[in-house]
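Narrative summary of target 7.
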Amino acid sequence: MEAFAFHNPTQILFGNARIEELGGILKNDGIRKCHLIAGGGSLRENGAYERIQTSLKAAGIELTETWGVQANPTLDKVKEIVEQLQNSGSEAIIAAGGSSVIDTAKAAAAGCFLKDPWNAFTEKEKIEKALPIYTVLTLSATGSEMNGNAVITNTQSRQKWGMFSPLLYPKLSIIDPTLQSTLPFKQTANGAMDAIAHILEFYFADEKALSTLAIDDALLRTIVEMTDRLHYNAQDIVARGNLAWSATLALNGLSGVGMNGGDWGCHGIEHAFSALHPEIAHGEGLGVIFPAWIEYLSEKTPSQFLRWARCVWNEDTVALAVRRFRNKLHDWGLAGSLRELGIKQNELSTLLDMIMIQPTIGGVFKLNKEEVRSLLMLAF
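Modeled conformation, tokenized:
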């Protein structure tokens, strides 16, 4: 097991009725004025918005708001929010929503102190300061509520890029599983696949990290089991809570301890899918590329993927495990191919150019352009 450092500064409040504590915590932190960032109307429908307002009002905290963050959030929206933050004098951000909202909040929190928010993604500017971020999670997927990552799409350049800063870990995140009980199952399944993908990006990096792999085995099995239960009964609060916490653990640092940073090739590939077609959900795109990636690479080094087959899917061969994986995603109603995602064959060359901005992609397996071309054809 490789040497590592592990630290996560985010405080988690998990469970029902924790939103009511938000105002008091902000007050104790010396915050007098906050800016709420949200997506669509679901925050009002599930009652979270009213509860946030009530809690902040009771603590005497002023609130300004921005709504309309979309899935696969955009740089244009980030810039709009940065201008609002600078004009309003807000001292902190409340991101109430899923990963798109939280990632937008992170980019804006840093962007307030940069010449251009996109410079954080291109590394033209270093993040040295950011507004504090508090989150109320309404869709479990990326673990953004407990990490310093953010992914934003520059629609003009068709680049969907990520960035990280330790200054962007939320100060506090509230995970109330009851807020997710009204989600359409497709959104739950997309989020589950996203969480699975985060674990898989680390899973094949180092077979010596046995304790981390044991945690990852348990998380992967739990995510699948809880999603199955929610497919049957969306109001299963035990399943909802366990799925939510598993998705957080999938990318809060724990799942990658001792894994040399993981591979992340599949994420880079999928980012091209949803940059070219913003209507593609990130989790669903990952559900297409990851089984194909495992199938493709396991033909070269099958032993590297055998533990996953046995410990997660209880199969003796990688081929059978990949089949089980694909069948499960099909049962959840997710796409099984690039074609089913709406990608056309004549767009594959464009995708390849978008993906291969470096000679290779992936931190562990390092696929070259011809290998990625073959992978795309396998996934098509």
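The longest strand covers residues 33-38.
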